[in-house]
Each structure stands twice: as structure tokens, then as C-alpha cells.
Amino acid sequence: MSGVSVSVEHVVGNQISKGLPHYFVELGDKDITSFETQNSLYRAEDYDHLLFCLEERWQDGDSAFDPLFVPSFDIIIVLFTLITVSDHYKATVLTRNEPYNVNRVSYSKRAIKILRKYLRILQQFDTTRYGTYKLELLRCQMFLAIETVNPHFKYLQNCRSVKNSTNENVYYKPDAMPENIIRRGIVNPYRSFISCVETKNPIFGNIPVNFKLSQRGGLSNAVLWTLANSIQEDDLLFHDAYEIWIPLFDIFISILEIRQAYFLENEIVKKISKELRIQKLMESPICQFLSFVDSINFNPLFCEYVFVNCDYTLINRDAALTIQPVYKGETQPTEVYYQRVKYTKQFKAKVSMRIRRRFISLCFNILGSVPTGLHLPKPRIHKKRLLVEMSRTLSTFQNIVEFEEFFTFDYEEFMFHLIERTLYELFKQDRRTIVTERPSLISGKDDLKTFFNEILALFKAGAFTPDVRINGLPPHEIIDNAGHVKNEKLRLQKIDVCICTILRNVLQGQAKPLLVDCKKLLIKVSKRINIANEKRLEIDTAFPQLKPFIDSFI
């Protein structure tokens, strides 16, 4: 991503006298014509030809230099909004608009494909193929569009309601968010063409999504609506999240990551004091986006948001989060809609945990830029407190499928720290107090011998064996100090998942000579697994994943 954040050959916003965003790029004559053409199709509500206009330019990729057809920032906002026009509740309106469109791909899916294509082009930043000017112009339009998704108001008193007797941590309001929205947040920086989004009618009944999310509590509600429904048993609600909001927020986060990298590279002076750097970081795109969470209690509240509707133990929660549909009719399928796919719990958990990790990654993206010894005052993100809050929540997960899918990830540095702290929380639930200090597995992962010796020490201490010192109770039901029933089998299963994940990410990709040097240690770990398995038979559990995995390297 270095090219997209470094290239500033055509930006003019860094000229202070212009008062424009740093990344701003002026339009050429051909681009003005292109933007006006796109806006004309939008005003005429000819969405099919608008999308076709954006799609067909990719078919001409045989030439050595393939010029890039750049959408204007307000057309990108239109694409964001078209994603929300899903067939399951808009089929009647869509059919009325295109009565003969019976076999083609939906507007929603086409918009997602187009935006992801443009994102890949930006991330690759191939100047040989597209030219520096076109890529910087595309980057400018993407940045202008994402900065209109701005939480002007945080979730305040209206975000909670009294819990009912079912112990649910989410209260669903049947009515959609209000439509009487003050449209603000878009200022067209170009004088050479007129932006059409601010004056145009709704798109198939949906007002532009940036206005929707920028109203009071709009972004907070949309995030909660997405995450809560991403793990829903109700297939219609899951379908709504899967088809609309998960792809949309995934695209938002990808653009924000590029925008943040550009901000850090070009909009913060390198040699400034730590205190001034903190002040500048509070103005960064990700900090602005994360302000939808109450900054005073950011760490526990963000944790509650990001794990909403997951199956875990709520502590000291006397109120439920209140969420409601973002657009009217989302929960009311049309008569012609038919659910063709039956989603499995495993699939739902996989989809849900991936988007949750994406939101968490935003926090650690900004934390990686905070100078040592200082903390962000707004939003008040504290790395250690956030890790502790999330690891404690994860350690109380009651659904092993959700837990396992959350820790199914490709290499992400922050996830290693989270999994290590979660492992420690699980060890702390053992009443024998075998493990008294947090394991240092992550710090030793670059030295395999140190890493395996740390794991062997945990095995020798008995950290992977069940606590069966209970009189008069079955060994798989243990009363802990708080008086809750603890499932020892589930605790050990979660420990297995943590260790398997750490080992998989550490060992895979290691050079063969390094693994040969550690063969004796691997054999010792395998033997220790056998010993632990014998003791685990007392509660009818074993290492189903770890032993075959270790043995494959011996």
C-alpha cells in the first residue's frame, strides 16, 4: 500500500492558500466531461447504464496503457447507496424500474463488485498501466466520499433500554431510523461541475447512505445492526447483514485504511513533539470514524459493541443495547422474495467474526501510531485496557464455534497479543492457580526454541489438564468463586483453539532447517499432549486438533 500513500505528484491541497484537503487533485477537461456524463445518468435515474459505464471500461485491458475511468466522489456515494438496495425488500421497486431485467445481476452486487475493483486498483497503484494522475484522482474521489460518512453525533441516552426477562443483550426496535434528515456533510470542492447527490431524490426510496449514517446515532446504530444480525438465527436478518451491511462496512474500512496511511505519511510532520503528534492523531480519519463510540468509556463500550449478540457472559449489564433497521422495510421481505440459501451456523460465525476483526483492526491501526508512554485522549483508546476487556469477554464465550472462528485469521500482529491474553484469562479460571503470570509466547515466537520451551513449561505445570478436585459434583461442572457454573470441558476446548492458532501461525512458513533444529522439542510437546489426553479422558475430551498438527512437523 506504500505507493498509494506516498504518491503526491498531482495533489494541490498541500498548498495552504487553497484551503483544500491535502490529497485534492484538480480536474482536467476530459474528467469534467466524464463526471458530467455520470451525473446525467444519475439524474435520469438510469442506474443500469451508469453501472455499465463503470463496468465496461475494464473489458479493454489488452493495451499496454489502460486509462482509468474515474467515478466522481458523489457517484461513489451513489454506489455506496446502491449496495443498500437489496432484492429481498426492494424487489417490487426494482422490477417497476426495470421490468425486463429478470436474469441480470442485481444493482447491489454490481455496485459491490465495482467498488472492490476500484479498491484493488488503488491498493496495487500500478502507475505503469493507469498513470499517476488517474490513480491520484481516483484516490481523491474515494477520500472525498468516505469523509462524508461522519458520525456528527455519538450514541447518547437513547442507545439503551431496560432489559427484559430473557437476558438478551440487544433490544430490536421494529421501526427504521427516521427519514427527516438534515442533509449536511457534503461540500463540493470543485467549481467546474455541480455535485448532484445533495439535491437528488432518494435512490429507489433510500436516501444516500452517507446522510443516513451521519445523523444522530446513525453510524452507531448501523454498526450494531450489522454485527448483531451477522450472527442472527433468523435467516432474513442475517441475509440483510450479509448482502448489504457487511460488504459496505468492509469497503468503508478498506478505504479508511488507505486514507489513514496517506494521513500519516503526508499530513503529520515527521519531526514534532509527542504531544503535538497526539493532537494530530485525534484528527486522523480512523479516530474521526471511531468517534461513534463514547470516548469517555471507549474500551468497555467498544468491546460490548464489537461482540454484540455473541454468546458470552454479560457482567454488570442492567440495560440492553437498542438497535433498529437503518432503512424502512429491511425486515419486511417482498412477496416475490424467496430464501434460496439455508445458512449454517458455522458459515454465519465465519462471516460474523471476520467483520468483527475488521472493526477491531481499526483500533490497533491507530494505536500503532501512538508515541510510547502516551494515550489518545479522544477517542480514549488504551491498548492494554482494550486487550484486557476483549480477552475477558472472549474467555467467557459459551459457543466454541464462535470462539474458534474469531481466532481463524491470517497473520495479524494485534491478534497474537489478543489470543495470548485470552489464553491467560482461561488459565486464570483454573482454581488450581497453575499459571500465575501471563505467558510470553508472542515475544518468543521469533525464536522457536524459546517458544517451544515456554509451551513445554505450561504443559509440565498441568495448564492443559482439567481441574477435577471437586467433591460431590460431576467433574465437568465446577462452581467457581462467583457462583456460576463453569464448564471445564469448554474451557479446555478454548485453550486448545488458542494454542492451535498460535502454533499454526508461528510454524507455517518457517524454514525447514529451523523446524529440524526444533524436532526434539516438538517430540517432547507431542509426548506431553499424550499425558494431558490421559487426564482429559476423565471429562471426555482430548486434543483433536493439536496432536496431529504437531506430529506433521516431526
From TrEMBL:
Cellular component, GO annotation: Smc5-Smc6 complex
GO terms assigned for molecular function: ATPase inhibitor activity; SUMO transferase activity
Any one Pfam family match given in the protein's UniProt record, by short name: Nse5
Protein name per UniProt: Non-structural maintenance of chromosome element 5
Biological processes per GO annotation: DNA repair
